[in-house]
Structures are given as structure tokens and as C-alpha cells.
Amino acid sequence: MTLTLENAASAENGGSTQIPTPAELIRRAEEIAPTLLSRIGETEKRGYYAQDTHDAFLDAGFCRILAPRELGGYGYGIDVYTKVVTAIARACPSTAWCMCFGAAHAINICTMYEQDLWPEIIESPDFISPLTVKPQGELVEQEDGSWLLSGTYDYCSGAPYATAFSSQAIPVFRDGTKGKPVTFVAHRKDWEFLDNWGNMLGLNGSGSQSLKFVNTRIEDRFVIHKEVLTLQPDPRDPESPKHGDNPAYYGRYLSFLGMEPAAVALGALKGALDYYADQMKKRTTMRPPIGLRSEDSDYRRWYGTVLGQASVAESLLNDITQRWMESARLNMLGEKEFSVEDDIRYLYTAYEVIKICWNAMDTLWFSTGSSSAQNGNRMQYYFREIAAIRNHALNTFTDLLTRDLCDRVLGTPGDGADSFYGNSFKNTGTQR
Fold this sequence. Notes:
This protein is an alpha+beta fold. Helices cover 44% and strands 9% of the residues. Residues 1-16 and 424-432 have low confidence and may be disordered.
């Protein structure tokens, strides 16, 4: 059976007792993806994908991939999830970004919050929670121990269909003093959705609108008073809260954060390759001898080169997602800590995937012809999407990471202003 927007509801989904296999989830993504191609324009204009697309994603089970099985999710790992995201991004990277950055954060919630709190936060197994890390609001402590949150949070990818939201805020204590950023989680009823996204070079359909909070009450049990961006559960500590039996909930967050845009970038490059191949069969060369591009030695070399680069990027992404899951599994079993060094290596590799996709896109772009730069052209769209991913703030952390990696391996004395772990999040926070 073909899973399309029209008949997706009849597919095996979360209502079934049968959990779909990873291969089935990927197949569903590959079947839904082509239906998104003709809707790229409307998705960009709206700022996020349509409701019937979202319904198809729900019926296919994409928002349950990482959610805990205890609450009706599938409890898979990031190695499965990134393959589904890449398959969707091959057609529409913006749609994949909105879906990915919403549903991915079941992992973060299940890592940060102890298992007893999951049912209150994950009210539905179709869990979607944008997660930003820049403290753009304040939490004012109340006499009863709860907090009132006020602030506007930007770049909340996945916001249009979100069921929850997590970020950081500056705590204002009852005596008027302020503390270091703390992390909170809020529910859909708690915010005002601001439809203010879309004035970008690319990712205009990524659903990265802002959420506004005005004196929203957040119970103290949903506020984490720790540096959570580098936090991971420690099963060897008897005082450490429990986080279930999915290894994905025992990993480090920063490297996973880099794998999300890397998966979208890889899908976007594959989509550009699909279009380039189609054009090679239809269009002629721009210089003599005039003939089909598919028969020209230069076009065949350019296309083959980028095919190879995409293969390298995919191999790297598959490798680090599997290694991340293995590191998380060993940490869950208490056999080996998921180290900061491993976290940096995985995150840096994710950045390299994005760089490979960006550089490969240059070959397609210079050789595809000026007509591909016209508005509405698929090649122009993929170029803009990859350019926006390359422009993401995470790409600027590379120098800090390489210095940190050196310090971890050689024992050199870094931990100050030139250190990612020593400075970036603890003092200033950063924006997703």
C-alpha cells in the first residue's frame, strides 16, 4: 500500500499495538516525501507545513519515534530518527526541519527530567517540543515556590504543532536577586503563538516562530536548577534519577543537537542531486559540443563527484548516530561514561557533514545554469535551504570545540574564554 496524505490514516500507526520497525518508518517517510514537492511554495509562504501533512506524519508515527514506550511511543534511537528526517528533507528540508526539531526533543525531556515526571510533560506519545537554549525570559519566584514566566522566545522550530516547550530563563528570587539560567518546560496552553517567521534566505517553512509568555505559572518541579546543557544521567550514582531503559535517554545533548541539522542538510543535498539528475536528462550543455548533459563528460563528472560527497556525508552521519547510541548504551549500563571528548568528536563530525553538503552544493550550483536561480526553481530552493543550515549559529562553535578537544586529549589548560565547555553556555547561553 502507498502511504500518501490521502490514505495515511489507514496505515499502521500509534493506535495499533504493533510498533513499526525502523525499516517501515523509513519506508513511510520515503513514500510521503514526494507529496511535499508540489507544496514547497505554500509551505514557505505559510511558514510551516500544512495540517494534512502533519496528520500524515502523526499517522505514520514520526512523532513517536523517540518518545518512551512506557507512554505509547516507539522508544527508538537517533540512528533511526535521523534516517526518517533525511528522507523527508530530500523533498522539503523546511518541512523536515519543523518536524525534526519538534519531535526530536523527547530525548532531551527524558534525559533532563526523571521518569516520574514524564507523564505530566509528555501528555501524548505524539510529543512535539521546541527547545531553545538562550534565556529570553525571566522566571519570578512566588511565595508558594512556583514561578511566573515572562518573555518572548524566538526560533522555536516546531512551534506550530508543539505540545510542549523547553528553554532557559533567568531566575528572579523572592529577595529580588537574579541567578544563573535555569531550564523549564511549559505546556501548549501556557504560551501565545506569534506567527512571525518567514523573512529569511532559507528555511522559511521551518515553523520557527516565536512563543510569548506573560506571567505564565510554571510549577517548581518543571524547573531544573542545574547546568543542563552538558547534563547527562549517571546510573552509577545511586542518587541519580531514573530515566527508563532506552539508551537514547542516557546520551549527551550537544552532539545530538548537531546531528539534527546535519540530517536535514544531507536530505537537502540528496534532493538537489535528484533535480540535477532530472535536468541532465532533459537539458543540453551550455557550450559546444551541444548535447544532452547526461552525455557530457563534465556534467557526468560533476554529478558523480557530488554523489560521492553525499555518500561520504551519509556514511559519517550514520557512523556517529550509531556510535552515539553505543556510548549512551554503555553509560546506561554503568559500564563506561559518555565522555565530553566523545561528545565533542560526534558534534564536530556533524558539523563536517554540514560542510560537506554546503561545499558539494557549490558544484551543483555553478554548473546548473542561471535558470536554476529563478524564484520557484527547486535548485534555488535547495541552495537556499543548505545556505540557511550552514548559517546556523552552531557552525560558529567549531574553533571552541577544536580547542576543547585538544585540551581533553593533551591535558592542556583550557577552560576559559576560549573554551566551549568552560565559557559559552555557562556565562551567556546561546540560541538554537
